[in-house]
Amino acid sequence: MTARLAVKGLAKHYGGVHALRGVDLSVDAGEVVGLVGDNGAGKSTLLKILSGAILPSDGQIFLDGEPMEFSTPSMAREAGIATVYQDLALAAQQDVVSNFFLGREILAKGFLGKRLGWLDKKAMAAHTKSELARLGTKIADIHLAAKDLSGGQRQALAIARAAAWTSRVLLLDEPTSALGVEQQHQVLELIKRVKHEGIAVIFISHQMQDVLSVCDRAVVLRLGQVAATLEPQDMNTENLVGYITGAKVSASSHPHLEVSAK
Ligand SMILES: Nc1ncnc2c1ncn2[C@@H]1O[C@H](COP(=O)(O)OP(=O)(O)OP(=O)(O)O)[C@@H](O)[C@H]1O
Ligand SMILES: [Mg+2]
Asked: Between 243 and which of 142, 153, 211, 228 could a Cys-Cys bridge form, CB atoms 3.0 to 4.6 Å apart?
């Protein structure tokens, strides 16, 4: 099976800082891959490259087997990749509906829409409501401003928005950070539903319980490299923490160790 999304030899350096040093990674349709690693390991950098926010220094990206180059976020979006960044990027003063459509507003039909750029507010509200419901997001009043939502509702809105506009890949950078138990649960359920719709998901998190609860596999980044890829049978807290901290070292990520062991 061709992976939905694959990267090969991805590298990024900022001057002398090597944020990524040749990363290989793949995600299938309907699969959630956890991307874990210590602060500064390169997780957000990898995600920003996949979403077209920054350019790689080297390496390739494949979407359903097709080589892709995303020089802008809109190119990645149009290819079916949606992203929830670490800082969420909601418009605080605008309501739920406006945030849901940010940059994709529905124009009113006919003259008003075409000539005056009037928005079809009714259609937008109905669409927002049905999409939030489809993804199980609990927001009672869609006319509240984003700043008046709870932290969990804001994260759920950012994810529901991304999920609603994606067709192929959803990238999530720490969507459950700093959430209460119930709110976290809501976001995790949302990720599971997106997965069941056949979308490939990359989920960055520092919360090992969350990774264990929604991810099919986990890729551990350490100092800009893949330290280990954990398959379901190896997915446990001890392995995750071990590879993240460097207490464990995978033979495959250091071929020279394998040779010297023989
Ligand atoms: N614009 C930039 N200029 C210079 N260095 C950068 C830039 N962006 C990221 N870096 C560096 O690249 C490395 C990886 O950063 P990145 O944000 O990808 O880490 P991360 O794994 O997401 O960490 P965290 O868990 O703290 O979010 C860090 O050393 C960081 O300082
Ligand atoms: Mg980060």
From this structure: 228
Q: Are strands 17-27 and 5-14 parallel, antiparallel or unpaired?
A: antiparallel
pLDDT > 70 fraction of the chain, expressed in percent and rounded: 87
pLDDT value of residue 81: 95
Beta-carbon neighbours within 5 Å of ion ligand 2? 44
Residue 118 covered by a domain:
no
Tell me the two tokens of residue 256.
Answer: 């020279």
Phi-psi region of 37 (alpha: psi -120 to 50; beta: other; left: phi over 0): left
**Ligand 1 proximity of 39 Cβ (cutoff 6 Å):** yes
Choose the residue to mutate in 45, 49, 202 for probing ligand 1, maximizing ligand atoms within 8 Å of C-beta. Answer: 45
- pLDDT for 35-63, tens place per residue? 999 999 999 999 999 999 999 999 999 99
The CATH number linked to 228 is 3.40.50.300
Comparison of pLDDT for 145 and 155, the residue scoring more: 145
pLDDT value of position 152: 76
| Residue 69 domain-assigned (yes or no) | yes
The domain tally of the chain equals: 1
Measured distance CA(32)–CA(216) in Å, rounded: 5
User: Kind of pairing, strands 58-63 and 5-14?
Assistant: antiparallel
Beta pairing partners, 43: none
DSSP state of 38: S
Ligand 1 centroid – CA 12 distance (Å): 10
Cα 118 to chain centroid, rounded: 32
By the 8 A CB rule, do 130 and 47 touch?
A: no
Over residues 232-261, the pLDDT tens digits come to 999 999 999 999 999 998 876 554 544 443
34: domain range?
5-93+165-261
